[in-house]
Amino acid sequence: MRLHRLDITAFGPFGGAQRVDFDELSAAGLFLLHGPTGAGKTSVLDAVCFALYGAVPGARQGGSLRSDHATPATRTEVSLELTVAGRRLEITRQPPFERAKRRGTGTTTEKAQSWLREYDASAGSWKDLSRSHQEIGEEITQLLGMSREQFCQVVLLPQGDFARFLRADAEARGKLLGRLFDTHRFAEVEKRLAERRRAAETEVRDGDTALLADAHRMQQAAGDAMELPGLAPGDPGLADAILSAAAVARSTARERLTIAHCARTAAESAQAAADRVLDDVREVARLQRRFAEARERAARLEERADAHREAQTRMERARKAEAVAPALDLRDAAEAEHRRASAEEARARAALPETFAGAGAPGLVAAARKAAEELGGLESARRAERKLAELAAERADLDRQERVDEEVLQDAESWLATWEATRTAGEARIESAQEAATRAEQLAVQRDPAQARLSAARQRDAFARDTDDTQARALASRERATDARAHWLDLKEQRLKGIAAELAAGLVDGEPCAVCGGTEHPAPARKIAGHVDREAEEQALAAYQRADEERAEAERRLGVVREALAAATAEAGDAPTEQLAERAEELEREYAEARAAASGLHTARERLAQAGLEHERRVAAQQQAALRAAARVSHRDRNDLERASLEEELEQARGAAGSVAARATQLEWQVALLTEAADAVRAADDTAQRLKDADARLSDAAFRAGFDTPRAAAAALLDDAAHRELQRRLDTWQSEEAAVRAVLAETDTAAAAQQPPADLWAAEQAAESAARRLRDTASAQDAAARRCGELDRLSTHATASVRRLAPLREEYDRVARMAGLAAGTSADNERKMRLESYVLAARLEQVAAAATVRLRRMSSGRYTLVHSDDRAGRGRSGLGLHVVDAWTGRERDTATLSGGETFFASLALALGLADVVTDEAGGVRLDTLFIDEGFGSLDDQTLDEVLDVLDSLRERDRSVGIVSHVADLRRRIHAQLEVVKGRTGSVVRQRGDQM
Question: Is the torsion defined by CA of 619, 622, 626, 628 positive or negative?
């Protein structure tokens, strides 16, 4: 990898754009990067790292990359041109940028951007490769073969870190070497083995726990026949102990099952014998109860024998009376019919006049025929009477119409007399309203512009007042911003003057200086009175930024108010607001009056139109009333003649009645009464004859059935319910008598009655006791069988669990042994060296060998670096680093080296590490290296030897940049890159090898 060009804009202390030409600096092979403290020497290296990886070295991460000296419009940017793996690339990166919004107030943040280009030698131009952060990062990492941490250790050789590496313990060295050689995969192997060991151990313990749970369940099933082993999950021999205890428990359970089976068989035999005895006793007791009940039923039948004979006699008379029942029913029906007919005859005769009270049926029929003939003769008189009523109604209607027409004629004449005056007044109102509407339209055209000018004039006056106030506030804000900026710049300059004291505050005895790398600090700078620290400067900067934002906001508001004032003045003119208000008020009043007057136009037109329609209607009504009056005169004469003729005809037909209809009603009622009375008399005569015939048939039927009188036959009859009840009683007697005789005749029942009374309670108690013994023995056998089945099931499950755990135990033993070896905790690992430490020890041995080549030249053959894998105290071995002193022949720890010896030893270590990491990265050539500080601790002779070693790197076509502010190096190294700091930021000055 060779660097060609670096462009920096608004990055770190560089406020503007700066360019570094590495091709010119690298021509001499060795160049110096120097400048005062705080100027930004390290920021040049940070820019290189940021261009490649998008981040600065780890010790300087977290801060802002943007320069505080840059103008707000300048965006931070770093561009690096380099050659790597035979490809010439250009990388440009821009971090996130906070800028002012283009519209409105406030700020917005633009995203970070990256570009990667490659130079095409055949075309002589650059071609774009990618704009993706991730793709560019992956491409650069693949080409360099190093991560950012490795690059910062190999290319930007930080001497302070390697000085600490020399003095560090094994653990600290392991962390640094692990980052450089990417040995985390070996640490992951250790971690994976440990996780597998824990997982296998957990599985074994879980299996043992499940096995113990099965053992507890077997103990619960076996009761007191099993004892558990006193072992915990994971203890050896646990499985065998549990299986042995389970075998003993199963054997005991089977013996108890055999005993329970024998006891149940004996109980079943005893219960069968007791059940047979109980059945015999129950049968004897049943027969004895049956015989006693039959004797009691026979006694009750003997007591009811007389009542049974009476019932038989009554049933016989009822069967004889059934032959007389039809004649009785016929006689009752005839008698009821005759009573109804007689009552109807009496009612009909009561309604007749006294002249017909004693008349028979023929006389009543003749009188009804005569009245009907007279009624038929009145039909023509009825029609004449109806016609006379119609003529009277017609005459009354003619009189009513005449009165109505007279009222219509009077009303029309009165209304038409005022028609001319009404029409003239309506036309005058319409003309006046039309003139007012025209006036309102003219005023409306003038009214809206007047209101607009008045509103604009009021806004003009308000904006004029706001302009003065806003202008005063903008001037005050501008003055405050100027004062705040001057105050901030003064504080910044004071801080830069006292920056040495601020840096000296962080010095610790025995630790290297961040500026020169020396571990001794004889005269650190002291803070003077009134010293300005970083917090004070940042507060002043924040105050200036707030004041500048307030100034910008005040000027923006002033511009807005001025624009609004100009617009309002252009619309309102120069007329005073009071004059415009009076004119607008006057127009508004006149417009309201005109609109009020014009609002009656529609109403006036409608009223005039309605009056015209009313005039036409009145004239038409007057003409029609005159025509109707002329027609009514002839109609009235015809009506009078026809009425006189009809009244004469009706006088003869009415007779003594009030009207023809009344006479007809009298005749109709008389005909109906006579007809009804004749029918009732004939019906009564017929029913009397039928009653007489029914009495004769009833007497004959009662005599033939053996009854003295019809009344006796009727008394012997039974209705259906009484007949069914009597028959039921007779049937029940016969059934009960037959059943009692059958029971008393049974041989078994009679024999049982001769035996002593049966003792059923004693037999039941014996049977119940036998059944209870059988249930107890059956329950005991079932429990024993379940215990055997449960123990067999649990034993099978436990045996399967033991077989399943066997491979897990073997795997756990194997993994635990490997994990112990990798972690350095196994007894087989004599040096207690972890796997990652073992790999790093091999790498450290390579680094020590490569560093020794340069260290011997720097120390004139005195010192040699060697790797040691001895244990330090109780710690682990593998990462020890010693130095062999050829003058004394003794080997000692690198922490005993002096300051200058530590510097060139760490430099040799850094260069050796760079060679090893380069080979580890796939042989990527590193043509540009940087060494940061530490040269101030060397004497002149050692410095010459160190520079000779660095100068020898040119033999491999490398260029080395030394970062230092040691003055003697400026005379020895002609190619220089100077960083100069100033009030507006730092700048770079480059000088080649022409000096």
Answer: positive
Q: Is 9 in contact with 74 (CB distance < 8 Å)?
A: yes
Tokens of 282: 């129950």
Here the tokens at position 770 are: 């036998």
**Quick one: tokens of 8?**
């920096």
At 663 the pLDDT is: 64
Spatial distance between the Cα atoms of 952 and 81, rounded to a whole number of angstroms: 26
Other beta carbons within 10 Å of 123: 8
Q: What angle do CA 506, 509, 510 make, to 5 degrees?
A: 120
Alpha helix locations (H) across 133-183? 133-144, 148-154, 159-167, 170-181
Contacts of 372 (CB under 8 A, 6+ apart): 667, 671
CA distance 37 to 979: 10
Contact (Cβ atoms closer than 8 angstroms) between residue 94 and residue 113 = yes
The DSSP string of 687-729 is HHHHHHHHHHHHHHHHHHTT-SSHHHHHHH---HHHHHHHHHH
Residue with the two structure tokens 């682990």:
876
Q: What is the dihedral of CA 911, 912, 914, 916, to 10 degrees?
A: 170
Cα 148 to the chain's mean position, in Å?
45
Q: Read off the tokens for 93.
A: 């990166």
CA 484, 489, 490: angle at the middle one, nearest 5?
A: 95
Q: How far is CA 405 from CA 391, 608, 627, 633, in A?
A: 21, 27, 10, 14
Question: Environment class of residue 183 by beta-carbon count within 10 Å: exposed (0-12), middle (13-18) or buried (19+)?
Answer: buried
Q: Alpha helix locations (H) across 746-876? A: 747-753, 760-823, 835-858
Residue 525 to residues 36, 492, 503: CA-CA distances in angstroms? 15, 18, 8
φ/ψ of 304, rounded to 5, equals: -105, 20
For residues 975 and 993, give the distance between their C-alpha atoms in angstroms, rounded to a whole number. 5
Tokens of 799: 């045996």
Q: In what helix (H) or strand (E) does residue 91 lie, and over which residues does it extend? A: strand 87-94
- Does residue 2 sit in helix, strand or coil? strand
**Residue 863, burial from CB neighbour count under 10 angstroms (0-12, 13-18, 19+):** buried
Q: Which residues contact 321 (CB under 8 A, 6 or more apart)?
A: 705, 707, 713, 714, 716, 717
pLDDT at 91: 95
Spatial contact of 568 and 459, defined as CB atoms under 8 Å apart: yes
Other C-beta atoms lying within 10 Å of the C-beta of residue 524: 13
Looking at every residue in the chain, the average pLDDT score rounds to 77
Of the pLDDT bands very low, low, confident and very high (cuts 50, 70, 90), residue 935 is: low
pLDDT in tens, 646-678: 666 666 666 566 666 666 676 667 777 777 777
Q: What is the pLDDT of residues 178-225, one digit of tens each?
A: 666 666 777 777 788 778 777 777 777 777 777 777 777 777 777 766
**Type of residue at 283:** E
pLDDT band at 995 (very low <50, low <70, confident <90, very high): very low
Label residue 802 by pLDDT band (50, 70, 90): confident
Q: How many alpha carbons lie under 13 Å from residue 383 in its C-beta half-sphere?
A: 4
**Residue among 333, 312, 330, 315 nearest 717 (CA):** 315
The residues, any chain, with a CB within 8 Å of residue 808's CB and separated by 6 or more, are: 200, 203, 204, 207
Write phi, then psi, for 755 (nearest 5 degrees).
-85, 165
The strands making up 14-21's β-sheet, listed across from edge to edge, are: 14-21, 2-11, 77-84, 87-94, 113-120, 125-130
Instruction: Please state whether beta strands 890-893 and 2-11 pair in parallel, antiparallel, or not at all (unpaired).
Output: unpaired
Is the backbone of residue 147 left (phi > 0), alpha (psi -120 to 50) or beta? beta
